[in-house]
Amino acid sequence: MQREASSQSSTHHSAAQQEEATPSDKDGKAPAPEPVEDDNPNSLFSTSYETRPSKPLQKMPSRTSSPRMTNGATADPKFKLPPGLQDLIASFEAVKARKHDPTSPHSLRLLAASAATLPVAQDAERPKRYKPQTPYKTPAHYPQEPLGLLEEPSFFGKVDTDTLFYIFYYRQGTYQQYLAAQRLKQLSWRFHKQYQTWFQRHEEPKVINEEFEQGTYRFFDYESTWMNRRKTEFKFAYKFLEDDLST
Predict the structure, then answer these.
(1) How many C-beta atoms surround the C-beta of residue 219 within 10 A?
(2) At 221, which CATH number?
(3) E strands of the chain, at which residues?
(4) Domain range enclosing 158
(5) What residues contact 155, with CB distance under 8 A and at least 6 apart?
(6) What confidence tens digit (pLDDT) does each residue in 26-72 have?
(7) Among 21, 168, 201, 216, which has the highest number of CB atoms less than 10 A from its own CB?
């Protein structure tokens, strides 16, 4: 009995201590914690619970309202042309009112001209400039056309003059002949149409006028020696100068 009485008294004593340690308000709720003041003025959080009065919202102008001029008059919504263009209004209105007739002779002529120049599938393909001089049937795995490199102008800038002369004289009528001639002209060679020979100035001509120039030249002898030779006191008439190739 004494042990039970002592245990009950200790229980009541501990409960009383807990009530003193956690005081409550009248409603039985714990009081809200007080805000901690921050001495830093740049803090992201404010310690004040006061709310500032919000500014009244401004009424947005209506988009459907008519534009107003500064003097209170209403602006004209139509755009006015300058006085010099006023005469174009009548012709513009006449063209706009004109009805298009797809069966008119003029429309039919335009349709016929368009149909005559319709694109075909071959228009999208790369043009084939290669025409074999001595066609020979070869297996399908064998190359049927020369390398595409032989049609690049940059390739002809890397070969020597002997190769250019060979292409010019032995690949006549081909695109490679044109590229070789273009490169020779860039190297200051000039083609003589009468002699079918390429000439180059060895030195400055002694005589120059509107019809010809005369002096010492080098020329490529393609008929006998296949080498450059020199000819003095040669008169190069400008009427025999091939000047159609662009550099």
Answers:
(1) 19
(2) 2.30.30.1020
(3) 190-192, 197-201, 207-208, 212-221, 227-237
(4) 148-240
(5) 149
(6) 455 555 555 444 454 444 344 444 445 555 555 555 554 444 444 44
(7) 168
Q: Are 245 and 181 in contact (CB under 8 A)?
A: yes
Taking the model in full, what pTM does it have? 0.47
> What gap in Å lies between CA 219 and CA 197, rounded to an integer?
7
112: left (phi over 0), alpha (psi -120 to 50) or beta: alpha
Contact indicator for 199, 217 with CB cutoff of 8 Å:
yes
In a domain, 194, yes or no: yes
Beta-strand pair 207-208/227-237: unpaired
Residues of the chain with pLDDT under 70: 1-79, 126-130, 245-247
* Residue 220 resides in a domain: yes
Please give the Cα distance from 181 to 159 (Å, whole number): 13
CA angle 43, 44, 48 (to 5 degrees): 80
Name the H helices within 105-148. Answer: 105-116
Neighbours of 154 (CB within 10 A): 8
Q: Check if the beta carbon of residue 199 is closer than 8 Å to that of residue 189.
A: yes
Which pair of tokens denotes residue 123?
């228009």
How far is 72 from 41, CA to CA, in rounded Å? 50
Q: How many domains does the chain have?
A: 1
- Is there a domain that residue 203 lies in? yes
In-domain check, residue 235: yes
Pairing of the two strands 207-208 and 197-201: unpaired
Token output for 62: 């209506």
By the 8 A CB rule, do 216 and 207 touch?
no
